[in-house]
Amino acid sequence: MQLSLSTWTDIEQYLKTSDAIIIPIGSMEQHGPTGLIGTDAICPEVIAKRVGDEHGVLIGPTFNVGCAQHHLGFPGTMTLRPSTMIAAIADWSLSLAKHGFKKLYWFNGHGGNTATIQAAFAEVYAQRSFEPSPARQPALRMTSKNWWELPSVMAKCKELHPSGDGMHATASEVAVTYAAYPDQVRNQTLEPKIAPIGSFTDAEHYRANFPDGRIGSDPTQATIEAGNTIIDVTAQALWADFQKFAQS
Amino acid sequence: MQLSLSTWTDIEQYLKTSDAIIIPIGSMEQHGPTGLIGTDAICPEVIAKRVGDEHGVLIGPTFNVGCAQHHLGFPGTMTLRPSTMIAAIADWSLSLAKHGFKKLYWFNGHGGNTATIQAAFAEVYAQRSFEPSPARQPALRMTSKNWWELPSVMAKCKELHPSGDGMHATASEVAVTYAAYPDQVRNQTLEPKIAPIGSFTDAEHYRANFPDGRIGSDPTQATIEAGNTIIDVTAQALWADFQKFAQS
Amino acid sequence: MQLSLSTWTDIEQYLKTSDAIIIPIGSMEQHGPTGLIGTDAICPEVIAKRVGDEHGVLIGPTFNVGCAQHHLGFPGTMTLRPSTMIAAIADWSLSLAKHGFKKLYWFNGHGGNTATIQAAFAEVYAQRSFEPSPARQPALRMTSKNWWELPSVMAKCKELHPSGDGMHATASEVAVTYAAYPDQVRNQTLEPKIAPIGSFTDAEHYRANFPDGRIGSDPTQATIEAGNTIIDVTAQALWADFQKFAQS
Amino acid sequence: MQLSLSTWTDIEQYLKTSDAIIIPIGSMEQHGPTGLIGTDAICPEVIAKRVGDEHGVLIGPTFNVGCAQHHLGFPGTMTLRPSTMIAAIADWSLSLAKHGFKKLYWFNGHGGNTATIQAAFAEVYAQRSFEPSPARQPALRMTSKNWWELPSVMAKCKELHPSGDGMHATASEVAVTYAAYPDQVRNQTLEPKIAPIGSFTDAEHYRANFPDGRIGSDPTQATIEAGNTIIDVTAQALWADFQKFAQS
Amino acid sequence: MQLSLSTWTDIEQYLKTSDAIIIPIGSMEQHGPTGLIGTDAICPEVIAKRVGDEHGVLIGPTFNVGCAQHHLGFPGTMTLRPSTMIAAIADWSLSLAKHGFKKLYWFNGHGGNTATIQAAFAEVYAQRSFEPSPARQPALRMTSKNWWELPSVMAKCKELHPSGDGMHATASEVAVTYAAYPDQVRNQTLEPKIAPIGSFTDAEHYRANFPDGRIGSDPTQATIEAGNTIIDVTAQALWADFQKFAQS
Amino acid sequence: MQLSLSTWTDIEQYLKTSDAIIIPIGSMEQHGPTGLIGTDAICPEVIAKRVGDEHGVLIGPTFNVGCAQHHLGFPGTMTLRPSTMIAAIADWSLSLAKHGFKKLYWFNGHGGNTATIQAAFAEVYAQRSFEPSPARQPALRMTSKNWWELPSVMAKCKELHPSGDGMHATASEVAVTYAAYPDQVRNQTLEPKIAPIGSFTDAEHYRANFPDGRIGSDPTQATIEAGNTIIDVTAQALWADFQKFAQS
Ligand code: NI
Ligand code: NI
Ligand code: NI
Ligand code: NI
Ligand code: NI
Ligand code: NI
């Protein structure tokens, strides 16, 4: 069940049985010469929709542009400043709270978003914490999970790509996007086969250190099959984790 | 060609032949008991992707949550405050400008976004206008078009729905979403058949005046066929209009 | 009746019979070599004060600097960024709401303000729409009207200046300022007689395309007499339109 | 010479001989039962225009709504939040700097504005101070003067109103507005004759302590004659002070 | 009694007998070749802690970086923009208000902070003034005092340093820091002995006019003994002034 | 070497040999009935100063109020909203960058700060990433480390407190503060001996779940001796880690 494909009366019904929602959140940023710019939005979106379809959980629209300033040295990357992202997450959250949603599960596809998502949660909570008691703003509970950190997911990724899964433009995330968009599979040799690793600051620094955009990965080993496996495993893990959250 | 489904090297290539991009921009808001909450995002997205597929134009990610505070009285509606939306549009625009895009065509699906989009353009332009000469920030040109206002589109909508096309949750926009998502067609009688018209201020006021969310429309006459016709007509109009913009 | 020239006890009295106010809003921007920088503030101010004098309607202070970033290439132009203007309009509005004003009629003299004014309204409404029910913030109703778009005004302007009324630094608006400040009439030949038309983005772009600041106009035909006629016609139209608003 | 009543070519000429401007800045706030809400805007405006007329100094538009949150308990008062006022003063200042103005003399009519004006100056200066050397932003010099603190002005006010000139809604400022708007003279007995004095925090606190709005004043002694005297004296003092500033 | 060195149960107890707190507020800015960068934070902190120790008054954490953009031309200076400082002071104030503190005494060590502190107070008060009655936010009372302006303090400073106490990097404030940190006494000849005086705008301007950072002062005469005397006198004055405030 | 206790000429000298600085960053929040409100600021401050004293590293002022909205249910807690904290960290960072510092090591004492610190870094980096090449803003490198996560520190803490070290108001952090302020040791029995564990959202939720403020800890076992041991171990680890950073 997708919010975007529901009517308001559908949501009114849904709220009679659940006050929880999953919101995919990603990024629009380079993922090396063979990875799609939308990778970090596509992964959580595809997995969340699978859970939405199979279990009737409501899936919100995808928060598709995130914190990617460090990738701005590569054409196509788009970013929000963290302060903008905090304001936007707050507006999304307060909109849902207005309708009676009390548990927001942000399902994240981009490590670079993690800090700002947590800062946004604190910004939203702070509004209520500053209020005199009793607060008028309804209590919200928010959580954020990176898809690759759900139980058993990383193990599966490492099993599928024992070497060169990497940190950015990973074989696993690229595989998920190939499974989601089979006509977008890229066949290209990358040099070096496994990209260098390291840290980074701003866009200039990132590009100087990671000239083709990858970090520690060999995404050429990504396959549609592996992608489908990862989607299956992660969807199961998401469903289990979300249930716990929704019932907490 | 979609930014989300491109690699950064694809975009690097694209920029050698074009510095223009189409960005669908919509809203996540109630569209009556039979219209989808994502209607205003779906319509420009579907039409833009058609043009992107047929003509190789680059289509950006969809800016999917817009200015919909007046619909917050209906479950599922999500909104940005205008100040947040201005910040986000600015960040998207400056990201694209960084790569050399000089012409941003925002293809809009929600009348309520129009003013804030224009304000955002002025915010972006103002940064450069305030700069001492010569400005360091590259010159940008931005335009925003509502899909139903492209040449010949409204005429076709009125031809298809001579009465009760309406102002919100229109038969035409609902038809487009049914064409895009045929499994989401809703069959339901609405009372009154054609919704009332009028103006509105905030969410409470809107709901009091338009109890089921529609304004002036009878979306029950929406069909997949009509939706496909509208998509065809609008895609042609968009392509023509975009070409003029890209060459200006 | 002007807010600036009233005491607080006057306003206390006024609020017993009306909760509506007219607020002139303009801009401080170049209007070609013969038009005054204050034109867009002067026009709505003069017309509104006429209505205030004749009918006892309360006229607020003039919001005199607006959105004019595109005119910054010409000496004397002043602008707010849209984000600043939204904050300021919100503060003005909430100040008036605090006292019991419920209907704010912003009488606008500058087309470039329109979008940001509407965005500001949505910003103010959104505060209330986000509030849990029942809202504590009082309900406000706001409207914005461009003086030249009131019924019969444009017809009169075209009648007075059948050719070359134009889009910026129009003969009509310059005439109004000459009527208001007869000692400021400028007699100067402009070349070309009717300025070019077109669109614009930032200040550099505007000045490159409209070298003396005018768009499509020949303001040399402006006369005090025409200005007085326009003031008369517009004041009548404003009074009629405001009454409808105040009683809605 | 007033910016509002000048053309851009006038300002272009002016800038060849001077890079300094006077900007009246006031407030829209209650001034007791006999004082005008616009008092603090009217006083600096009238005096500055006198200097502008007599000496050809350029007078900017009046910044008419300032920091008056403490007066919001009285109908008609309007305020900006300090953060909004800082943003607006910055935009005004940077607009003028764009054209080559280097010396901005803010001529203030409201004690409650003083702190925020100084904070706004620091905000503007900070932008340049943070810049790497050499700064691209042109150097600005800004000063703010309260009209009653110019040399010899307070002495004249005390001479005219030896007792009960007061701190808010003073006899002197009310006299200036009566001189400026002779048809607005109010004749009313106030009780007590001289209002109480004290400090205040927010609007509720202010109204509780100063029930009719005045602080320490007996404005019933205000006369048109005294107002004209004060305007004369202050205009001379302003001209002298401005000259020093413009030549510094 | 220091907030930083108290437990929450200590504060719970304190609030049963007092709703007032002293918060030292300073700056991190150059104080000439012999003055410490922390001078303006150290002075109010040391004096406030003395009062806290002697009288059981609660002393908050030191707001240690303030408004010092004009000193950015000298290594080590740190500043907040005024808009940031307003937001921070508001957050500190609303945190304390949440617990029941009603009287906040900001004890200031830097003249350059004064305006922004006052603006911050107005920002906080404005929130409550804008609220519909009855306000939900508790009423707060805030004051700010510069330590050298407390009764009898300046007289003592002038007595100790009859010539060359100065305006920035004063002999008196340097003496206080030497008393507080005896191992930080600097012995160095300064040229000229007494620094020049004047006004300033941004960092470049300041450094050009005051090449070693001092204004009007000869801090080489600062001694530990004088510092201790000033601390004694000021602590007594602070205690007296705070008592009046706490009981108001 | 402390910035606060240095002169600007000292810093000028320091910058000739190093462009790196350590900035302690903490929080002002309840730490249970026996822990000090300043604990999270005291711990990094004490350890950093140790390193500053021993190795001549420059230690910045302590950023003493952080992200603690969830503790606002306990008297004495102070917080910044994340958006304020981002602005403040940006201002601190850009101040230091102005002088030539290129490596900022934020030494953190509060887990709740981590996300917002990272978001602030991205905010600062984004400014430069958005700039056209070549960027004018100097390149900065920033890192943030939690003191308890430095190599070997947690092992030592667990060795000292094998059970009940906990997550908030830990025995280890309380021990550090007792070592730093021996006169602040609290002897009090806590019930239950080891506090419950769990997650939290806003202040109301936190207090409901952790009634005395502790999470998972038994801080009654904290001793001055253990504190000194932890300070020793952590100072060594900090020095090693900082050296790597400063040379990177
Ligand atoms: Ni990724
Ligand atoms: Ni729609
Ligand atoms: Ni105009
Ligand atoms: Ni006044
Ligand atoms: Ni000082
Ligand atoms: Ni802690």
Based on the model shown, name its key terms.
binds nickel (II) ion; homohexamer; three-stranded parallel β-sheet; globular; Rossmann fold; mainly alpha; 248 residues
Question: Would you give an account of this structure?
Answer:
Chain A contains eight helices and three strands; from the N terminus they run αβααβαβαααα. The first copy, chain A, is mainly alpha-helical and 248 residues long. Chain A has one domain (3-247): Creatininase (Rossmann fold, 3-Layer(aba) Sandwich). Chain A has a three-stranded parallel β-sheet with strand order 1-2-3, sandwiched between helices. In chain A, helix 2 crosses helix 6, helix 2 (39-55) packs across helix 8 and helix 6 (171-180) crosses helix 8. Chain B binds chain D through residues 129-132, 136, and chain D through 94-95, 98, 136-138. The complex binds nickel (II) ion (6 copies). One nickel (II) ion binds at residues 31, 39-40, 110, 168, 173 of chain E.
SSE run of chain A: HEHHEHEHHHH
Specify the helix fraction band of chain A: 40-55%
- Biggest β-sheet: strands ordered side by side in the sheet of chain A: 1-2-3
Greatest interface: A-B, 54 and 54 residues
| Shape label of chain A | globular
Number of helical runs of chain A? 8
Topology-level CATH name of chain A: Rossmann fold
Number of domains in the coordinates of chain A? Answer: 1
From the coordinates shown, what is the CATH architecture of chain A?
Answer: 3-Layer(aba) Sandwich
> What profile does the largest beta sheet of chain A have?
3 strands, parallel
In angstroms, what separates the terminal alpha carbons of chain A? 22 Å
Question: What's the CATH H-level superfamily name of chain A?
Answer: Creatininase
Q: What is the β-strand count of chain A?
A: 3
Radius of gyration of chain A: 19 Å
Family (chains A, B, C, D, E, F): Belongs to the creatininase superfamily.
Organism (chains A, B, C, D, E, F): Aequoribacter fuscus
Keywords (chains A, B, C, D, E, F): Hydrolase, Metal-binding, Zinc
Protein name (chains A, B, C, D, E, F): Creatininase
